[in-house]
Every structure is written in structure tokens, then in C-alpha cells.
Design a protein that fits this description.
The chain is mostly helical and 85 residues long. It contains four helices and no strands. The longest helix is centred in the middle third of the chain and has 17 residues. The two termini are 25 Å apart.
């Protein structure tokens, strides 16, 4: 079954599953192809990876609630640098 192209919004919605390698192989390839050709989505992926790396060593309760809320808002907005189209 051939999967069609995905939009930036689709990629952002699938990004966590993409990073966790939880997508079916065909869908993973479609997302990877999009990321390879879309600078905005590739930048978003780089930002998510950098955030994971930077925050990965923190323990629960080590960030103030206001910082957690700001992070949740930022990642929940779906648009950084115009990535959501």
C-alpha cells in the first residue's frame, strides 16, 4: 500500500512516534522523507532532540511548574518557525 505525502501538521503530530520508532515502516519512511525535504520540520525535530537531550537528566520536581507549563505550551502549540502548515 502506497502512502501519500504528509503535511507539516501530520509530521508534527507523528514526531513522538517517529522518534520512538513506533510508526509502521511505511509511515516512518514517509515521515523521514518529509523531514529530509522540509527545513522547518527538520528544525523542529532538531529542537525536540535537543530538548530531550538537555532535559533528559532532570528528575521529577526539579523544574519549577512555570517552566514546565511554558514547555508544554511551546510544544503543544504545533508551530515553531512556521513548521505547521
Amino acid at each position: 500500500m502506497e502512502l501519500g505525502p504528509v503535511s507539516c501538521a501530520d509530521v508534527l503530530a507523528l514526531l513522538t512516534d517517529y522518534l520512538e520508532e513506533a510508526l509502521p515502516a511505511a509511515r516512518h519512511r514517509v515521515v523521514a522523507d518529509h523531514l529530509g525535504g522540509c527545513p522547518a520540520c527538520a528544525a523542529w525535530l532538531a529542537q525536540v532532540r535537543a530538548t530531550i537531550a538537555a532535559l533528559g537528566c532532570l528528575r521529577d520536581g526539579s523544574l519549577p511548574p512555570s517552566v514546565l507549563a511554558a514547555l508544554r505550551h511551546s510544544f503543544g502549540s504545533g508551530a515553531v518557525g512556521g513548521a505547521a502548515k
